[in-house]
Design a protein that fits this description.
This is glucan endo-1,3-beta-D-glucosidase. It catalyses: Hydrolysis of (1->3)-beta-D-glucosidic linkages in (1->3)-beta-D-glucans. Its EC number is 3.2.1.39. The protein is built from 14 helices and 19 strands. It is α/β, with parallel strands linked by helices and 476 residues long. A nine-stranded mixed β-sheet has the order 6-5-4-3-1-14-13-10-7. It has a two-stranded antiparallel ribbon with strand order 2-19. Helix 3 crosses helix 5, helix 5 packs parallel to helix 6 and helix 11 runs parallel beside helix 12. It folds into two domains: 350 residues, TIM Barrel, CATH 3.20.20.80; 116 residues, no CATH class. The two termini are 27 Å apart.
């Protein structure tokens, strides 16, 4: 599996300067580690579950693993952490007794190589190790795991390493439909009445992932550990699902991941720890085209297996995160749930001082129907957004607008940013296709790391492309 991160690793809290960087999480594969050499991309490498027994049983094996996968590549490949196994306590509980010995053996090998201060060691956990997660103040670790969790947390505290958690609001929503609103899961703006409130602390939660992170913090507090930071090693939203997964779609995936990035970059922390912003790794870079059903399992990626983008990540006020030269595929529309009075004020500004072309929403014109403020505002917003060249911040309108990759055109109403053309404008269509090909070529500059369950052909293609994800200026 390959994941990408949009934030400084969270244990780097002492540095004061701004840094521009990208980070990835991947298996310890020689081709990947070589490809990442001298890129300044921060890398977390993982130890497969099937190697835990050998490493935990032998210090020599652990030292050999560090030599082959870390010392041989560091510092040219900027390895910052090692993830020992993946959800071991819940997926392979028989390996639980060997988890701490494996971590300690690898740490001893890092000490011997004098790399223990540069490279941290931890292990990713499933969210299910936390019981009674809401309200967060009542959360606690599964007590049957205490023999592992307590010494693990003590080790993380001693070494300054993070608690790695795989957190998926998608599953929380799917398992609690009717209780957890979709808007809370997707970071959409909420009225105060829709915010989740912890009755014990009176802390207000506007999104699910903050509640999940704080549940982990309260669980650690119950074990008298308060100096370990949560690192979200997996989070994401599937872009396609079967008939039983109607919420696994491109719009929700784009909304979740884009808003997740913005939420992290806002550096607001969580209600319980506003001073700590957890790093988040998005799962995942590529769709896994050979995955077994359900369909959603194969569709968590930002890119298809053939390296074409599934959708474009956007953050209001920050432009496009995948490529600034592909924003011709995006539109600006009114958000759901905004009151008509607020939307009307934004519409009036767009058609007035904003000089958007609002002639098409006049009575009798193509976009007059549906005759409501949301429909008219969406057209005006997109007109202004396209007029401004889709520039950073041009789709905001005081928080009532959002960027989408879905063409909002309908019937004879063609939005300003739409690529739809009539048969009489074939030449324009040909020009558009050429532009699309150029944009696709530029998109191919992005990372292609190995992921599980991908075809051999896709794997070979993946190794051939260099990671050049646009770096972000993050205040560490």
């Amino acid at each position: 599996m390959s994941r990408i991160c949009f934030h400084q690793l969270s244990w780097c809290r002492s540095c004061k300067s701004r840094r521009s960087h990208t980070c990835v999480s991947t298996d310890a594969d020689q081709d990947i580690l070589k490809a990442l050499s001298k890129t300044k991309i921060r890398v977390i490498i993982s130890v497969p579950n099937n190697q835990l027994l050998a490493i935990g049983s032998s210090n020599t094996t652990a030292a050999s693993w560090i030599g082959r996968n870390v010392v041989a590549y560091y510092p040219e490949t900027l390895i910052t952490a090692i993830a020992v196994g993946d959800e071991v306590l819940t997926t392979v509980p028989s390996s639980a007794p060997i988890l701490i010995p494996a971590i300690e053996s690898l740490y001893s090998a890092l000490v011997a190589a004098n790399l223990h201060t540069q490279i941290k060691i931890s292990t990713p956990h499933a969210a299910s190790i936390v019981l009674d997660p809401f309200p967060p103040s009542q959360a606690f670790f599964n007590q049957s795991l205490s023999s592992v969790m307590l010494p693990l947390l003590q080790f993380l505290s001693k070494t300054g390493s993070p608690l790695m958690m795989n957190l998926y609001p998608y599953y929380v929503f799917m398992q609690n439909k009717g209780v957890v609103p979709l808007d809370n899961s997707l970071f959409k703006p909420l009225t105060p009445s829709k915010e989740m409130v912890d009755p014990n602390t009176l802390l207000h939660y506007t999104n699910v992932i903050d509640a999940m992170i704080d549940a982990a913090y309260f669980s650690m507090k119950n074990l008298n550990v308060s100096d370990v930071v949560v690192l979200v090693t997996e989070s994401g939203w599937p872009s396609k699902g079967d008939s039983k997964e109607p919420y696994a779609n491109i719009d929700n995936a784009d909304t979740y991941n884009s808003n997740l990035i913005k939420h992290v970059l806002d550096r607001g922390g969580t209600p319980f720890h506003p001073e700590i912003t957890s790093s988040v790794y998005i799962y995942e870079l590529f769709n896994e085209d050979l995955r077994s059903p359900p369909i959603s399992e194969a569709n968590w990626g930002l890119f298809n297996a053939n390296t074409t983008p599934v959708y474009l990540l956007h953050v209001s006020g920050s432009g496009t995160f995948l490529a600034n030269d592909t924003t011709n595929q995006t539109y600006c529309i009114a958000m759901d749930g905004v009151d008509s009075k607020t939307l009307q004020a934004a519409l009036d500004w767009a058609c007035g001082p904003g000089r958007a072309n609002c002639s098409e929403v006049q009575p009798g014109e193509a976009c007059y129907q549906p005759n409501n403020v949301k429909g008219h505002a969406s057209y005006a917003f997109d007109s202004y957004y396209q007029k401004e060249g889709r520039s950073s911040g041009s789709c905001d309108f005081k928080g009532v607008a959002m960027i989408t990759t879905t063409d909002p055109s309908h019937g004879s109403c063609i939005f300003p940013g739409s690529k739809k053309v009539s048969n009489q404008t074939k030449a324009i269509a040909n020009t558009t296709q050429t532009s699309d090909a150029a944009a696709d070529h530029r998109l191919r500059r992005f990372i292609t790391l190995r992921v599980n369950q991908m075809s051999a052909t896709t794997n070979a293609l993946a190794f051939s492309i260099l990671l050049l994800i646009i770096p972000f200026m993050i205040l560490c």
